[in-house]
Amino acid sequence: MTTSTPPLLQLDALRVAIGEKTILQSISLDVAPGELVVLMGANGSGKSTLGLALAGHPAYHATNGTARFGGADLLAMEPQDRARAGLFLSFQAPPEIPGVKNNLFIRTAMNAVRAARGEDPQDAYDFLGSAKAAATTLGLPENMLNRPVNDGFSGGERKRNELLQLSLLRPRLAVLDEIDSGMDVDGVRAVVELVQRLRSEGTAFIVVSHYLQLIESLQPDTVLRLADGQIAERGDITLAQRIARTGFVQAPELAEA
Ligand code: ADP
Ligand code: MG
Prior knowledge:
Layout: E1 9-18, E2 21-31, E3 36-41, H1 47-55, E4 60-69, E5 72-73, H2 79-84, E6 87-90, E7 97-101, H3 102-116, H4 124-137, E8 148-149, H5 155-169, E9 173-177, H6 185-200, E10 204-208, H7 212-218, E11 222-227, E12 230-235, H8 237-246, H9 252-256
Parallel strand pairs: 3-10, 3-11, 6-9, 9-10
Antiparallel strand pairs: 1-2, 1-4, 4-5, 7-8, 11-12
Helix pairs in contact: 4-5, 5-6
Adenosine-5'-diphosphate (ADP) binds next to strand 2 and helix 1.
């Protein structure tokens, strides 16, 4: 008898609408623990829509199909319960939360997921130690922990702050939506190192990116191209390389010519 790891995420014919407008027609996708999937697609093809729908953004409605996470019905769960179950989304455009201190925000989130995993909470002192260490690794000045969440942060600093959350929350599945956009070369290197470390511990990833150098560094198991509300192509790194060479507009048969 063979034992295979059941998928962590199972999407079956998932349809997503914003208001009356269907954005994703039918998405079927399995992601196993530790698997890394790169999601590509032209601007407006629905990559962010998929991440936001999985995270439970209230404006994004699943109108058909199913989504299971760790065996549970993801669509029946509140956003905070999806996060507690180990789902993490880094936003393409991380919002500012004026008045909420970054360290309290991250510690509260971290202790909520720790409680869900049956782990003891971290007190302010211990948290600050691990948060400062993680911030240093990510090249984020320590004083950013004392500022309101993303308030006045540059684009690249916001993305590093998303990485800080990822590093401390240690999710089961992380959706990284254009994490590299606005980041300098050291930031991109920090992404690769953090993803490799978490992946070796079993975290699965869905990475949205247009940047071939990052995609190659991540050594994805699977590369997907989203078009017309569905997964138009599935492949390996050679799919990402072809897209980087010829773009999204050309038909594959022309691209090969
Ligand atoms: P991508 O991340 O692939 O660039 P998005 O998921 O952001 O694409 O957007 C997919 C489509 O959904 C786009 O055509 C976009 O204009 C549309 N869209 C996104 N948000 C809304 C919204 N709040 N209301 C209506 N349409 C939206
Ligand atoms: Mg997007």
